[in-house]
Amino acid sequence: MKYFLALAAAASLWLCLPTVCRAGNFQVQPGWWKIIVTINMPGMPLHIPPQTVRKCITPEQAAHGLQQMMHPQANPGERQVCKLTSVTTHGQQVRYRGSCSMPQGNTSFHGYMHYDSPDQFHGQVSTATNMAGRVLQMREGLQGRRVAAVCPR
To answer: Which residues make Cβ contacts (< 8 Å) with residue 56, sequence separation at least 6?
Structure first.
């Protein structure tokens, strides 16, 4: 169970990357972002409290699109390969689909981000991870907002 919770937390961090993409006629602002992730795993009696992720988005990162942001963010020593297979933008909403392959198993995901403004978004991600012949499903709600224009050092 500890391993699965660690995987869920890692997936939450990784899946927050769509916060740095262009949507509609504006670009997400660089700075210090706070993202609240709520995790729901169907069939699991365990309640996972919301997780808070803080992420620094540099001006260079904010200038790049979602596809380029997916690859350089793996944790050191992690052998995770992720790719997007579909990204569509309509107005202020971005929908995406992709997959990751890891030594522990493969994950497919799809979700959306709706940008309420250049410094605030909400969204949802659904994942299915195949580990040792079992499929673990998870749905994550995301609420993000930029809390500072400059990242702490």
So the answer is: 31, 32, 33, 151, 152
- Please tell me the distance from the alpha carbon of residue 5 to that of residue 95, in angstroms, as a whole number: 26
Q: Which of 124, 125, 151 is nearest to 62 (CA)?
A: 151
Q: To the nearest 10°, the Cα dihedral for 107, 110, 125, 64?
A: 100
Contacts of 52 (CB under 8 A, 6+ apart): 34, 35, 36, 37
- Distance in angstroms (rounded) separating the CA atoms of residues 51 and 43: 20
Maximal C-alpha separation, the chain: 45
CB distance 36 to 134 below 8 Å: no
pLDDT, tens digit (0-9, with 9 covering 90-100), for 103-143: 878 899 999 989 888 889 999 999 999 988 888 899 999 99
Between the CA of residue 61 and those of 27, 53, 145, what are the distances in Å?
11, 17, 16
